[in-house]
Amino acid sequence: MKTILVTGGAGFIGSNFIQYMLKAHPTYKIINLDALTYAGNLENLKEVENNSNYEFIQENITNQNKINEIVKKHQPNIVVNFAAESHNDRAVLDPLIFLRTNVLGTQSLLEAAKTNNVKRFHHISTCEVFGDLALNSKKSFKETSPYKPRTPYNASKAAANHVV
């Protein structure tokens, strides 16, 4: 059985990913690890909470020892990292938590994955690492676009990308 560890799975995008994966791959085991901060909401996962191939663990990705224990115990084939502090206005008010979670938390996950021989690591970022575009812009960003982060949130996600 393939096991996927999803971090930030109680958030909007992470919860939709979990629901999709359980429907598209009903034999996969999905471990949802989320700190349940302001962005996490287990109501997003009500329809899967009793699925025998779904498990929720409340933990923060910055807790290196716990993350390593969880990865060692569950032996995921894949880690998908949606976990992040987000929202630019919050980042301006408290940039340190963004650096802790988005950079050091990502490093914690990478260390646990490396130590426990996880074969694939998918890191979810944001287009905002490339700067801003007007809503009606004809321009688009590409993976080769230069980084131009403008807030502590953007900068922390850019740093996490480089760590990965």
Would you give an account of this structure?
It is a single chain. This protein has 164 residues and is α/β, with parallel strands linked by helices. The protein has a single domain, classed as Rossmann fold. It has helices at 12-24, 64-74, 88-93, 95-115, 152-163, and strands at residues 3-7, 29-34, 54-58, 78-81, 120-123. A 5-stranded parallel β-sheet has the order 3-2-1-4-5, with helices on both faces. Helix 2 (64-74) packs parallel to helix 4 (95-115) and helix 4 (95-115) packs parallel to helix 5. It starts with a strand and ends with a helix.
Strand order of the largest sheet: 3-2-1-4-5
Q: How many structural domains are formed by the residues?
A: 1
Strand content: 5-15%
> Per CATH, what is the topology?
Rossmann fold
- What's the oligomerization state? single chain
What characteristic shape results from the CA principal axes?
A: globular
How large is the count of helical segments?
5
Structural class: alpha/beta
User: How large is the radius of gyration?
Assistant: 16 Å
Q: What is the CATH superfamily label?
A: NAD(P)-binding Rossmann-like Domain
Mean pLDDT: 95
Number of strands: 5
Order of helices and strands: EHEEHEHHEH
What's the architecture, going by CATH? Answer: 3-Layer(aba) Sandwich
Low-pLDDT ranges: none
Percentage of residues in helical conformation = 25-40%
Q: Mind telling me the CATH class?
A: Alpha Beta
Largest sheet: 5 strands, parallel
Distance between the termini: 26 Å
